[in-house]
């Protein structure tokens, strides 16, 4: 179990780094767009698209990290009123449900990414394969699956992660 | 419809995170009912994330964080203290007024919560407001944005209905302002017991020291106040789009903080990481909502609800009440623009047949749907508020209820008195 | 008799756009001729997603019918040949291409590249150049103007060739972009000018009867695999109904464009005369370089030869 947690810690740190870097890429891209339009008088055609795609990846990776940190918004009012053992079971059931959803995202996301590679669908501005962007879904789904499995086996009681 | 509803509330009550309630209920529905390939799930999650209007959310959050770290927020609060601190509910009022300015510009309620929340909520908490109240004010006041021009929902309604967009923008002005002022009055009442100034003013002793203190705080506050000016001025002056203005806000807060040496590059990097995770939770909710909205549209649920309601009456005013009820219900589940696109063709022909003005009807549709953004248990702005305010959903739901009731009253007024919103467009834009 | 079937027809355009007139006609014809066995459900206004998403949904199987446009060219690059600016001179030229051998060949290559069967060709009308402050008659008038384009390399290159500063802008931001000055002009088709109420924020438009930026034939598409899996009678009902519906749609477009012309003039918009040849000469090199890039030089020459 400690292995599971150590892998989780490592992935979490890498995930924050990756999601943050991608956000910075989006930021730089839109900044460049403004700069090119006014200072150089020539618009960048791909800036908005690059920013959008970077944020798709950032959100999928960041979403899995957020699950590990317990940062997703949930309605916990009812569950908090359940007696201890039942609350624990319900908590595990939630992780199981998320794991199933994540597994489906990973599997179906991988399949549709591969089909898009096969179709050679290009993005309008960057003219790169859309499949590369679609891969964010299975990668994020797999990371989410890992986080949910870890939460199923490793108890994280008494932990409250505030968003701010 | 019943199946989808039960799945949804079942998952929500058992504490499944909202993003996975939205996406999960839709996925279970697809699995149980069939007829749609499962690849629709990743496809719609992708589509939900791949949206132009979403981009400003992480940037506004980051700008707020950087302003905090650069200690600009504290200065802004201090200045606000001098300005309105002696009034009751001063900072709560600042929050609403900021939304009137700011939300008016971006035209997107979620962006308003994301932009103002990280600045105003910590500031209000510092002054002694509870976290949920501070978040509730932020969330409730965010919905004036889509009413004031420019407004994305009004634009979408204009496209769906063929009504003049210029007139629609003007028609939203009065309801937006009245809603804003109503909230100012409510704050005044709700926070009447708040000590006027919880944070002591420097040099509060003599009036001379007070004046000196005011100018000292004004000087530094100007640096902080320049940010909204850049956003407002930049967008109004046509220098950049609302989305680009969010990036300008980040650059400004970052450069000021680094130049004044109130924060270092390491802090900036940490804030970017924090923002990425926080905005991911919001973006996944939007993505989940996109999947659920797609399933609802595919199954023609909104049309079915509308037809069911409309078959119940042939009275003009009962019809209007029904429409309001439909909008409040649909606004809970569907993202605003999507709901407008689906409902306008269903509702508008009947509305015209009953003799309602298409511009007035646009106000009815947009206002009704944006109230759905803050209505518990499901509301996109509510969820964004939970994330940026660090508040639990049910606590925020309770705190936001008085505002919601007030807004519904204001809404009813503008629904039943068409002239209250249409006087401005007919005065300034007689052709439309 | 026809097999029992539900066809979902998705469009990104608003319910008021002529596509919907064509789609409604198709629905009537198919439901009547199949004795109600085939049900057609219409989803206008991008309810089921934007164009790229609808194209994918057709290939994945959740949507059956859509209308190919710019995003389809990312799956079927050959389609770019009818999207190069100023090549197709208007509705007569467009119909000559769509209904003749060029259209057949284009449809064949679209299917080869993307797996879509083209049932018929809709029209989206002609597109003038709309500007806020500068009346446009010659390419010199466009120098340095920020003109909205969609993110398509060929449109960007063409705009640059004309000397403008092409500025990619989302469809829903065109109105506010023009109003606030982020963009100074656009090349929306006449029907979108009307749908988006662009007349409220511009003052000038070029005369689209003298020169149209693009006038593409728009293929009404199904998945070829899905279509071939249907029984023959069903196929015939669908194909014939769509061909009739498309003819009706093109008629509606032509009628609507002349109505809109009167409306815009009444609104106080100045429609300017243009030196069309000057624009065409500047963009011609872009035609040839793109045609070569996508292997469509033969089609390009046939399209030029079909100029009325
Ligand atoms: Na607004
Ligand atoms: Na606010």
UniProtKB/TrEMBL annotation, chain A:
One term of GO molecular function: transmembrane transporter activity
GO cellular component term of the entry, any: plasma membrane
Record's subunit section: The complex comprises the extracytoplasmic solute receptor protein and the two transmembrane proteins.
Cell compartment(s), UniProt: Cell inner membrane
Record-stated family: Belongs to the TRAP transporter small permease family.
Function: Part of the tripartite ATP-independent periplasmic (TRAP) transport system.
Record GO biological process: C4-dicarboxylate transport
Tripartite ATP-independent periplasmic transporters DctQ component domain boundaries: 28-153
TM spans (from-to): 16-38, 50-67, 88-110, 130-154
Organism for this UniProt entry: Arsenicitalea aurantiaca
Keywords: Cell inner membrane, Cell membrane, Membrane, Transmembrane, Transmembrane helix, Transport
Pfam families: DctQ
InterPro entries in UniProt: DctQ, TRAP_DctQ
Mode of membrane association: Multi-pass membrane protein
Protein name, entry field: TRAP transporter small permease protein
UniProtKB/TrEMBL annotation, chain B:
Ranges that cross the membrane: 6-33, 45-67, 100-125, 137-159, 165-186, 220-240, 246-264, 276-297, 317-334, 362-384, 396-417
Keywords for this protein: Cell inner membrane, Cell membrane, Membrane, Transmembrane, Transmembrane helix, Transport
Keyword Plastid: no
GO molecular function, a single term: transmembrane transporter activity
Superkingdom of this protein's organism: Bacteria
Domain TRAP C4-dicarboxylate transport system permease DctM subunit: start-end pairs: 7-419
Subcellular location: Cell inner membrane
GO cellular component, one term: plasma membrane
Record keyword Cell inner membrane present: yes
Mode of membrane association: Multi-pass membrane protein
Job description of the protein: Part of the tripartite ATP-independent periplasmic (TRAP) transport system.
Known partners and oligomeric status: The complex comprises the extracytoplasmic solute receptor protein and the two transmembrane proteins.
Family named by the database record: Belongs to the TRAP transporter large permease family.
Protein name (database record): TRAP transporter large permease protein
Taxonomic lineage from the root: Bacteria, Pseudomonadati, Pseudomonadota, Alphaproteobacteria, Hyphomicrobiales
